[in-house]
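Suppose a colleague, Dr. K., hands you the sequence of a protein chain of 137 amino acids and asks what its three-dimensional shape might be. Before reaching for any lab equipment, you can write down a predicted structure in token form. Begin with the sequence itself:
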Amino acid sequence: MQAAQSIVSFALEWRKKKKMKPLTVAVLDSGGFLIALLREDGGSNLRPEIAQGKARGAVAMGLGSRALFERAQSQPFFIQAMNSLASGSLVPVPGGVLIKRDGVLLGAVGITGDSSDNDEACAIAAIEAAGFTADGG
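The predicted structure, expressed as tokens, is then:
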């Protein structure tokens, strides 16, 4: 819980320094269960589901959501099938980043609110600042 809160706090500070739009940050454990979620003022009401969907896809597939995005382009039917199995809860665009330590999957961070590339960069920075290895795909 403390690590998740640290990741969320760092992500929001990083966002401010980079002058990004308001963000929503979700931290999931390795089973895909929500540990922490914060939606900044100004974020739309669907942002919590998007942030969780980016992280959930990463955990479920064992790949950062950038890799899922690339796979969706080359194998759209596969990603569509995986999303169907997940009841439509996967969001295969950059911004879902795996959290690892010594090669072991600990969970994932999903960030949404700015461009997908900026969301991903923020998640990577926050994960690394907390002392973990980030894997965006």
